[in-house]
Specification:
globular, binds calcium ion, 13 helices, 485 residues, 15% strand, Alkaline Phosphatase, subunit A, alpha/beta
Length: 485
């Protein structure tokens, strides 16, 4: 500093230097009205597998408490009926088909082309640039090469796994079940992802307990460490995705469920609900409940066609489909004292709305070049705006044949590969009565909307990955799942 300046000027220069200095945390006192943000994502959870949607055999008191103290989005959607593209939409606030992220990425650590395109701006980048501490915990699934890792996409802290899922137990190499998994992985690269090391930032570190517990611990730790500054936490459980694994301490809570698979699934769900309860308690204990906007949703519907005994009832269809069962998910937001408590918002809303809502309430600056498809939901759920947030919502998917759908108002037109079907979701949520033949005008109107939207999209940048033997052979090294010394 120039010591020849008068004392007052020196003080001003010092203050300006501090103000301009990069990397200084924006302490809570400097922006006390900026809420923390926690996004909790479940994986493959069925619409009907949560208490607030009518689940009877699995209690989810903590997830239900978010609905009781917040807003339940009764027509809450994700932008894709499968894992990775749904996350790409959530993370960018944009229909991911516009930038080619339409399929799951193969797990290819040396391929810098297969992952969330690097020209897309993530919510984490925006939050980090707004001075938030940013942390990702759990499943990533947006690219396995280092350029796509969470730390390269806006998260300053990361604990989790990069692929589409993970085994839940900290197996040792000699465990018989682990050996079976390894055999399976050597034949099926998609399962091989589930045995990759758990990472902390860019280092493999392993894990020592049931995965869902480990992820909840990390979330608690992140909140505790950052309680005095604004933070953004993305907690992406792999629960309740396959494989079907839960320890007795959770499974034994459900002696009345006769079906063994459903009982284990109930244990997995209950563990996640406990973990969410611990996150809520940590916020409460630190008096952050009314300073934290919390979202909970599933990334897509339940895969009822697999070994996973999920329930999407009363919805038709499942993961990979544009019927409601694939895209209409449990979806809630809580921000005590700011969102109306215990309310139900009926207008169609979508995961793409989270980015702009979060940016608006945190005053985070979205770069001008970013064209968000979502909208800030806050004025809608508080009743300031009574029109629907969206004129229409759109889907396109080709993970199970070429499919598309569009919803405008209560009408939904969809094509799952044969001919268009039209449903009035107000009276027919289970999509049982096809009105296409009797309402040609509505079909034509919605078809036109779809065609105009579809014309703006590009072809997928990569195909759906197929199970192969080639991907990992020669490069994968199977090690203990447990953390080292
Ligand atoms: Ca999923």
């Amino acid at each position: 500093m120039n010591t020849r300046l008068p004392l007052r000027s020196r003080w001003i220069a010092l203050l300006m230097a501090l103000w301009m200095a990069p990397g200084i945390p924006h302490a809570r006192a400097a922006g006390s009205d900026r809420p923390n943000v926690v996004i909790i994502l479940a994986d493959d959870m069925g619409y009907g597998d949560v208490g607030f949607n009518g689940c009877k055999d699995i209690a989810t008191p903590n997830i239900d408490s978010l609905a009781a103290h917040g807003v339940r989005f009764a027509n809450g959607y994700v932008s894709q009926p499968l894992c990775s593209p749904s996350r790409a939409g959530l993370m960018t606030g944009r229909y991911e088909e516009q930038f080619g992220h339409e399929n799951n990425p193969a797990y290819l650590p040396n391929d810098d082309k297969i992952g969330l395109p690097l020209d897309q701006v993530t919510l984490a980048q925006v939050m980090r640039d707004a001075g938030y501490a940013t942390g990702a915990v759990g499943k990533w699934h947006l690219g396995a090469a280092p350029c796509f890792w969470p730390n390269a996409r806006g998260f300053t802290e990361y604990f989790g796994f990069l692929g589409g899922g993970h085994v839940y137990m900290p197996y040792k190499k000699g465990d018989p079940l682990y050996q079976e998994y390894v055999k399976h992985a050597l034949k099926n690269s998609l399962f091989g992802e589930y045995l990759r090391p758990v990472m902390r930032n860019d280092k493999p570190v392993g894990f020592n307990e049931y995965m869902t517990d480990a992820l909840a611990n990390e979330a608690e730790s992140f909140i505790t460490r950052h309680k005095s500054e604004p933070f953004f936490l993305y907690l992406a459980f792999n629960a309740v995705h396959s494989p079907l694994e839960a320890p007795d301490k959770y499974v034994s809570r459900f002696p009345d469920i006769a079906d063994k698979r459903r009982r284990t699934y109930a244990g997995m769900t209950s563990a996640m609900d406990d973990g969410i309860g611990r996150v809520l308690k940590t916020l409460r204990d630190n008096r952050l409940e009314d300073k934290t906007l919390i979202w909970f949703m599933s990334d897509n519907g339940g895969p009822v066609y697999t070994e996973m005994p999920t329930h999407n009832a009363p919805l038709r269809g499942y993961k990979h489909q544009v019927y409601e069962g694939g895209i209409h998910v449990p979806f809630v937001a809580q921000w005590r004292g700011h969102l109306p408590e215990g309310t139900v918002y009926e207008q169609p809303s979508i995961s793409l709305d989270i980015f702009p809502t979060v940016a608006a309430v945190t005053a985070a600056k979205v770069p001008e070049k970013v064209k968000l498809d979502g909208v800030n939901l806050l004025p809608y759920v508080t009743g300031k705006i009574s029109t629907p947030p969206h004129d229409a919502l759109y889907w396109r998917n080709r993970s199970a044949g070429y499919q598309w759908a569009v919803r405008q108002g209560d009408y939904k037109l969809l094509d799952v590969g044969n001919t268009v079907q039209l449903y009035d979701l107000k009276d027919d949520l289970p999509e049982a009565k096809d009105l296409a033949a009797s309402m040609p005008d509505v079909v034509a109107r919605l078809q036109k909307l779809h065609d105009a939207w579809n014309a703006k999209l590009i072809e997928p940048l990569w195909p759906m990955p197929k199970p192969t033997k080639e991907v990992f052979l020669g490069s994968i090294e199977f090690t203990d799942m447990e953390a080292g010394e």
